[in-house]
Amino acid sequence: MNTLKLFGLALLLASSSVIANAQQFAEKKTLTLDGAKKVIATAVDYARKNKAPGGVIAVVDEGGNLMALERLDGTFAAGANISIGKARTAVLFKRPTKAFEDIIKNGRTAMVALPDGFFTPLQGGVPITIDGQVVGGVGVSGAASAQQDEEVALAGADAFNSTSMNGTPGKVSYFDRDTVSAAFAKGAVLFDGMDGRNYMVHASHRDQAGQAEVHELDTDIIYVLDGSATFVTGGTAVEAKTIAPNEIRGSSINGGESRVISKGDVIIVPRGVAHWFKEIPGPFNYYVVKVR
Hints:
This protein is an alpha+beta fold. It is built from six helices and 17 strands. It folds into two domains: 33-157, 2-Layer Sandwich (Beta-Lactamase); 177-291, Jelly Rolls (Sandwich), CATH 2.60.120. Helices cover 29% and strands 32% of the residues. It has a five-stranded antiparallel sheet, with helices on one face. The longest helix has 22 residues, at 2-23. It is elongated, with a radius of gyration of 26 Å. The model is unreliable at 163-168 (pLDDT under 50).
């Protein structure tokens, strides 16, 4: 009996030790390089959709170390260092940098004595938060205004909110028939790639042939609703020019495979494959789901 008591006591002490040790540790979220790139891609997408004339987007980890940076065309050179400073300030203080700019404006000028690179009290820096944990910071400099710097940064920081890292589903989107009909009437983006989504839905309309296209990042899934078209895939785009990052256009295609696609057909064009609506005899409506 004494032996059993001693064994039970030892087991109780061991289990208590395990519980105590477990309580000393907590699950920690970490921003990966892919995550940092996603933040930048979301911020850049927002900037372009909102006609920002430029900007530098910087992402740092929870220690303020630079992970990724992208400078849009036309942005002044100093924007890189400023955006890094904003991102670092946001993550180290776990607050948007606008809060510090407002504090200084309200008279607490002593805060500017903090060392450069460690503290940049300019609007446009935002912490990146996942499930309540600050995992990094994003800073933007060089957009049209300080307000737009912050808007672009907020868009980037929100990159994980549509589908969080632990797999929580995003919000369901619904478009009624009138909205869809209006989109097809002019050809429009029905669902964009904001909030870090890796897909878009286009309600596309054509009355005539278009340019040859090459999407370096997006795969096109095309479903024909009405009409028909001669569609060429593969080959090489003629007079190819880059019109935007990862987007190439040309006047036509050399080589490739030509086929007639019509109502009910589905065709998938992988990223990097040239494609061209060569002939369209009448109104042509089709959905395009773009997957990145």
